[in-house]
Design brief:
By secondary structure, the protein is an alpha/beta fold. It is built from eight helices and nine strands. It is globular, with a radius of gyration of 17 Å.
Length: 234
Amino acid sequence: MDDVLIILPTYNERENLEKMLAATGEALPGAHTLVIDDGSPDGTGEIADRLAEGSASIFVHHREGKQGLGTAYLHGFRWALEQGYGHVFEMDCDFSHDPADLPRLLRRSREGADLVIGSRYVPGGGVEDWGLLRRLISRGGGLYSRLVLGVGVRDLTAGCKCFRRQALERLPLDRIRSEGFSFQIEVNYLAARAGLEIVEVPVTFRDRQEGVSKMSGSIFTEALWVVWRIRLGI
């Protein structure tokens, strides 16, 4: 599976990183992982370097300061294309995305889907450990974004995805400016506009068990207006 890359952005994930790398290695033996650490003050970057020593499948890129999730994934996408990977995953390091789901996403990608999304909002998918308010915000925000953008993807903010190389090559990566949830929305919108085949595979999303959540109300507020920027291409 050396044609598979998992992009794993990190910021203060010392409690999760080693366990995550072990879990992804078990789920996809032979796959490579790129850890992109944004200068974590808790030592996550040093842990990543230690785990990468002597490993042929773990790579670590360090960036100065907290530059954001969207730029981390764009950095990873470009590196994946330079290195010739055929299938590229993005996922969180906090176990909200279950590594055991990765083989199902990869199977659909190998079958020809351009973009495979681990979706909470198709039959068989769901969330755990969320209160009613967060469920309503997520559902309502997703419906709002779909209506504004005119796309049929059910889980526009999903952060667990598998791209075929050909899909990344067709996406206008240089045009993407969004961060956080809105980054996921913009990528899905551009994929749909490019005519890519998008498949949603049901997964269960769980809140992180270790570390501090990076979720904030401002992220949802940002997504409300950013979808109009995306729609208008400005």
